[in-house]
Amino acid sequence: TIVLNGTSxxxxxxxxxxxxxxxxxxxxxPDGANDESDTDVAATAVYFAPGFxxxxxxxxxxxGAPNTAVAPMPATPPGPIAGASVVVVIGTDLASVxxxxxxxxxxxxx
Length: 110
Description:
Strand content: 5-15%
Order of helices and strands: EHEHEEHH
Shape: globular
Radius of gyration: 13 Å
Distance between the termini: 36 Å
Strand order of the largest sheet: 1-4-2-3
Mean pLDDT: 85
Low-confidence stretches: 103-110
Number of helices: 4
Largest sheet: 4 strands, mixed
Number of strands: 4
Structural class: alpha/beta
């Protein structure tokens, strides 16, 4: 899994990479060091290589993206994917949302 920033908002890929890593996902670029896009992508997309649709659906759920965000990997990848089987492109729809982490997703019962 790799997270790409599809917005002009700096640090978005890093935030979502940290969130996915905290949830136990293996990232090909765990630092999320991907430059922001020159043009903003409106909707977050989660692309998958053949055989990785279930993983893409799970990643989409983990970051709060709708199932409609999941799609097969385009013939030309959306950016430098470093051989990842699941590629997340954060759009402006999630760029301003604080991603959930394992530490913040657990709450104590009272």
